[in-house]
Amino acid sequence: MDKVLGIDIGGTSIKAGMFSTEGTLEAATQIPTGEIVSEAAFAVVTEGLKKLLADNGASADDVVGVGLDVPGPVDDDGKVGMLANIELDPEGLQAALKRTFSRANLAFVNDANAAALGELWQGTAKDAKSFVLVAIGTGVGGGVVTDGKIVSGAFGAGGEIGHITVNRNEKDSCGCGRQGCLEQYASASGIVRVYKQECEKLGQDPVALSGPTDTLSVFNACRDGDKAAQAAISCMCDCLGYAMAQISAIIDPQMYLLGGGVAGGFNLFAEELRAAFRKYCLAPSIGTRILPASLGNDAAMYGSAYQAMKG
Amino acid sequence: MDKVLGIDIGGTSIKAGMFSTEGTLEAATQIPTGEIVSEAAFAVVTEGLKKLLADNGASADDVVGVGLDVPGPVDDDGKVGMLANIELDPEGLQAALKRTFSRANLAFVNDANAAALGELWQGTAKDAKSFVLVAIGTGVGGGVVTDGKIVSGAFGAGGEIGHITVNRNEKDSCGCGRQGCLEQYASASGIVRVYKQECEKLGQDPVALSGPTDTLSVFNACRDGDKAAQAAISCMCDCLGYAMAQISAIIDPQMYLLGGGVAGGFNLFAEELRAAFRKYCLAPSIGTRILPASLGNDAAMYGSAYQAMKG
To answer: Chain B, 264-293: which have a CB under 8 Å from a chain A CB?
Structure first.
């Protein structure tokens, strides 16, 4: 039986899923890796994948596709750009996988793009022609799908929606070196940043935070009536709704999906976000749906498998 | 020999071109129409097209595609939305064309999208995978191409780049009812509007203008050292470069093409526009090319033919 592997590459381990070509996740495993830059490290990956297959009644010869998502740019031709946060030699790993899975098509995908493809294959966006996944974690990532295909971009910057400018008056700099990016207000760190600013404005102490991305505590404070937390979440909704309205004036997608850790609070802010989008968008786009993504942390694994199968 | 017709629908006449399937414009004609809402008016169109074919050694049976561009929204499924500026019954015209050209595939395209498709088929963007046409006329239109296909949008608002917000502090309203749209600064009327504001600021009289969209006089004044004209053109470049940087953070196209009447002044402002884009864009997109479109007023005729042929 033909199988497809979807591999989510992290800093210290990979998560691998074995899928049927119809999109059923039949088994998954986590393989500790460390840096993936040597033949020894490539062998850890390939042996781990072979074990996953063997444990589930399949073998390397069944594999028709191997998709890998990476936390960095991948251009329209599938070429991996500079990876800032992980040690990975993409060409070396690709060669090792090709030797092990000789029938398989190999594909690299940017992680947010992979998550979007996962939602397109088996998630909320199943059968959608166009949509944008907004992935809110430490930063804000995105996956743009038009005509059923991911838009990686000519230079790998497709879906960098965290860097849409939403405030030209901002003085603080974003990680990208520019000012006023969506990510500065709507990411986990952005929400906490704005919350602290609002506390200062109101002369109140912030609630106890476990760290600079602890939006859970900010969301809980909001539910408890904390004015600064409410202001931070309103700011997030306003910035996000504004950015989505800009996207709609360019590609006018069928729907937006919210994913990433912060999407756990979707019910808390969904109505305010929808209202902000409607306030800023052009009239024809006013009915665009804004929905939560449904595959959670597995989305990128699904999407990289899908990309390898399609390619 | 198979032929394709491309039809550019205007308020008082249509312009029709007869193309080979390879994209050579073999003949063209202008047919005065008036309102296109009755069987009599549809017959004027079909008879005019049959004459164009007959005069050039072809007949209705040779026609494999008829594409029509309209100045209004057309969604991803080819459905024509509300047309504000012309009197046209799209279903009626479509039925009449279908009776006349029984072999032909029929397609409607938004006019700016058609111009983009024309540039993709036979213009500057030939063989490009992705690009955005910025059409600067009385307003600012756009055509977005990803993976070689036009992005019409789920609600027909794809490519409405004239309504990207570039100034959240603007008090004057755009035609769309929102404030701070690109069109308020970078369209022909926007350039003249800003020029007059700059003249007032500087306490100078504007040069003689033939009307509210006379950018030619503003461009000439700029060449002659008029400070207000220079400021208006700098403002246009800044707003356009900023908007293009937002587009690149979403779909990251290979190139931008400038079309429409204002693109006649391309050489005057090209370097300033490129500098503005580089100032605002994300690092990976910095090499994106910004070029003039090449098919001029015929672009939409080419593009509607192309859409009908592909469809």
So the answer is: 280, 282-285, 287-288
Contact A156 B284 (CB under 8 A): yes
Do the Cβ atoms of A74 and A108 come closer than 8 Å?
yes
Please state the ipTM of this predicted complex.
0.92
Q: How many structural domains comprise chain A?
A: 2
A123 touches chain B (CB under 8 A): no
pTM of the model as a whole:
0.93
How many residues are there in chain B?
311
B67-115 residue pLDDT tens: 999 988 888 788 888 777 788 999 999 999 999 999 999 999 999 999 9
The domain of B19 spans 3-118+298-310
User: What average pLDDT values come out for chain A (311 residues) when binned by 10 residues?
Assistant: 94 93 96 93 96 97 96 84 84 96 96 95 95 94 95 93 97 94 97 98 96 96 97 98 98 97 93 98 96 95 95 73
**Which pair of structure tokens corresponds to residue B224?**
């002659």
Tokens at residue B201, please?
């600021």
- Same-domain pairing of B102 and B166: no
pLDDT at A127: 87
Same domain as B54, residue B183 = no
DSSP annotation of A174 reads: P
Whose CA is closest to A308, among A66, A97, A123, A20? A66
**Order of strands across the sheet that contains A3-9:** A25-32, A13-20, A3-9, A63-70, A105-110
Q: Running DSSP on this structure, what letter comes out for residue B55?
A: T
Which residues numbered 54-93 in B keep a CB inside 8 Å of some CB on A? 73, 76, 81
Residues in chain A: 311
